Amino acid sequence: MKFFSGIGERLREGLKRSQEYLSTGLSTVLEADRPIDESLWEELEELLISADLGAAMAADFVNRGREEVMYGTVTRAEQLRPVLRRFLLDTLGAARPLKLDARPSVILMLGVNGSGKTTTAAKLAAGLKAEGRRVILAAADTFRAAAIEQLETWGQRIDVEVVRQAAGSDPAAVVFDALKSAMARGADVLVIDTAGRLHTKSNLMDELAKLKRVIERQVPGAPHEALMVLDAPTGQNGFAQAKMFHETIGLTGVALTKLDGTAKGGIVVRIVRELGLPVTLVGVGEKVDDLQAFDPARFVDALVPAS
After folding, report:
1. Which of 304, 250, 247, 257 is nearest to 280 (CA)?
2. 99 in Cβ contact with 105 (< 8 Å)
3. In terms of CB atoms within 10 Å, which end of the chain has fewer, N or C?
4. Whole-prediction pTM value?
5. pLDDT digits over 78-121, tens only?
6. Cis peptide before 104 (omega within 30 of 0)
7. 135 forms bridges with which residues in the sheet?
């Protein structure tokens, strides 16, 4: 995606708190002349857990480190830094760009209220528009008048059409109208903002599953992306939320917001490992162009510099 330019510098700046936390800890634990003993492994494991990589992944890395020492490929503590970088890259895998080949490509934005879902939908629309694509936004979070107004305000700001109905309307009706509009106007991408919580007796997951069925009937093969928007500082709660959405909707990826607001950037690696989902987008600031395509190699460079 051409519009995600300057990602390396923005990602480094956005991950500054995480990098400082992890790098400072690594510099202390992996001192050049320190012997590789049990106390080192314990401190290293504790550091990785506190950086939000999770206990299982921290233990896995320590086991890999022990193997490297056993085989003689690591003889000094400081040599474990590049081993950690390779371990993180292996876990994250290759970058996975958004699927935008269909016309219209339908992107369903999911997540609980407060995760930054509506703002992320608008920022994504702005980036796609800047790339030269015709984009339409759908305000399908009809249970919150504020969400509709917020998306409309964003639409005016970025000059993107917003399909909406009155607060309290059936979200499926909004999605139906938006799909018809996208097809009639030859839109390249339809980005759909959805509810994160309902003010009725209806079950949220039932409502979202209904939206997905409406989309599938109107555009076979859609939604092409079902992105869970997660707030990076939420930690374990975010995993529980994502698992529930994934079981019901079938997520294709994660958009991680507020990555600049946490010193625990390791959550990115945990998401890929524990949810089995790629991180496709990351938010590293408040500006409209601070939503970035996720690049594993640049992420690792920003989180754990080579030196």
Report:
1. 257
2. yes
3. C
4. 0.89
5. 999 999 999 999 999 988 999 999 999 999 999 888 888 999 99
6. yes
7. 189
